[in-house]
Each structure stands twice: as structure tokens, then as C-alpha cells.
Amino acid sequence: MNILWLQSGGCGGCTMSLLCAESPNLMDLFDAAGLEFLWHPSLSEASGAEVRDLLQAIEDGAQTLDILCIEGSIIHGPKGTGRYHMLGGTGRSMLDWVQSLAPKAAHVVAVGTCATYGGVTSAGDNPSDATGVQYDGRHSGAALPATFRSRAGLPVINISGCPTHPDWVTETLMLLASDALGAEDLDSYARPRFFADNLVHHACTKNEFYEYKASAEELSQMGCMMEHLGCIGTQAVGDCNIRLWNGEGSCTRAGYPCINCTAPEFEEPGHGFTETPKFAGIPVGLPTDMPKAWFMALASLSKRATPERVARNATADRILVPPSVKSRKND
Known about the structure:
The chain is α/β, with parallel strands linked by helices. It folds into two domains: 2-196, Rossmann fold, CATH 3.40.50; 199-313, Cytochrome-c3 Hydrogenase, Chain A, domain 2 (Irregular). It contains ten helices and 13 strands. The strands form five sheets. The protein has a five-stranded parallel β-sheet. A two-stranded antiparallel sheet has the order 4-8. Strands 5-6 form a two-stranded antiparallel ribbon. Strand 5 (86-87) and strand 6 form a beta hairpin. It is elongated and about 80 Å long.
């Protein structure tokens, strides 16, 4: 299957992340899966007239397009014309090209939270009127209407993340190449469920501290970051602590709170990313699917039962108290 990759309003970070695909690397993986780039603005040699001719051939139907990948938000300004972002040398806006090429593609894939929901480029006053491809924040209907379906009958597939994990992108593309990704494999925000059915909280190395509500008070301390430092890994979808980044890391493993970058409107939480909003001393954001009364009862019991080892280590940047060694009764 062939892929046309367009970069719209954003930093290009999802392409940079994609190049970190390992074992196998990106190009070997594509070869094995039968995937090839028709064109990628950062990875392909073609430029100028060659690219214009390719885009025109797709638009005219002379060149079949299997997968259209779009990275970065779609710029609508000024006044809905999209002319704040012109595709160089074509005299047409990226908005115009996306709307023209998307119906030609068997599949349309939005890569990164800017492309899926608007992301960082849509934050604040949003003077460029940036949106995602099919979503404007949490609301369906943006550059492409809510009713849009590709030739294969699917909505825009939203691989969110800021940036995306390289495996989320490669696995999605391989599933499409194998005709193994259907509507039932997408969640309510059109994210592939193979990563979106997990929470960042799953397999987090700070889970023992979370269980006892033993909290870090400053960044880089070992304790749970939910109570004081803004971590919302208990609400954020993603297998970041299962499918590690670069084979060994994640935000929480590096001592930084999860900011829920796979979600629409994560870029404007209404408070600092490392702050936990509270009401009467109770964190406002509670774990997914847990009633507030249950959480408060559990937290109270957990704090009372916290072992000294866990309590002391929570506010340290290294292990101060190691686990005790159990002796056999007959020793």
C-alpha cells in the first residue's frame, strides 16, 4: 500500500518520533509490510514540480492513493480560506488540498494530537483558526465533516499523542495494510483501541506509591504525582508504561507527570501542567470509573496503612529504605 504524508500546522515532532522506530527500523518495517511512501516532505527526495504532478495525479484519479497521513493541525484562517498555510508552489492552501485528497484515499490517518484534535497549535486565542482533520477539540466536524468516511468506509483514524509513539503509527499502518482495522477497533474519539484501551497508569513504576497515596511533593521525587504534581495517568489513554519509549522510558518513569496528551483539549487544562487542582483539599481529577466517595474512603485507609519504607521513599529522589528481607519462621 502507498502512503502520501502531508505536514500541516505543527512542529514535525511526530515524524521525528516515527524515525525512532526500532527493531526493525522504519524503512525495514515498511518493506516487510508492503508499505511505501509516495511522498513524505521530510523523507522523500522529490520536490517542486515532481510533487505538484503527483498531487495532481491523485486528484485526477490517475494515481491511486491508499493511505493519506496528515501531521499537524489544519489552518482555516483567515476567515475560512486556509491561506495562512499555503502548500508551497501550488497556489492552494493545505486546507484545500486535504479536502480534495481525503475522498480519494482508501484511509485517512491523522498523526499526532495537532492533526487529530487541534493540539498545541489551537491553544489560546487560536488566531490561525487551527483544528484537527475531523475534530475541533472534542467536537466532530472540522476540516472534514463529521460524516466523512474514506473509500474504505472509516472515519479519520486518530493516532493522537504529542508526539505519537512510533509504534502506534507503524502498527496502525500495518493493520491497514493487512485489512485488519475496522470501525470496531476505534474508540469514541476514533483512536485505535490497541493503545487507547489502556491507561498510562497501567504498569506505571509509581503504582505502589499510588496504592498507598504516598505522594511526591516536588518533581523528580519517587512518589505518586497525582495528589500534588498534576499527573492524570489514571485518566489518560495510552500504553506508554507498557510499550516503553525508546525501549525503556516514559514521562512518569522520567519523573514528570502525565498530562494526557492523547486527549482532545489537553493543551488547555486551566492550570499548570504540574499542578493538581483541588476542592477542599481533594484532587478534582479522579481515576477513570471511580466514584469520588469510594476514592476518598480508599485514600484514607491507604494513607493509614502506608509502610514507613513507602512514605520515606515517596519524597526522596532515590531509594532511602529498601524492602525488608523476610526471614523463614524456622530460621
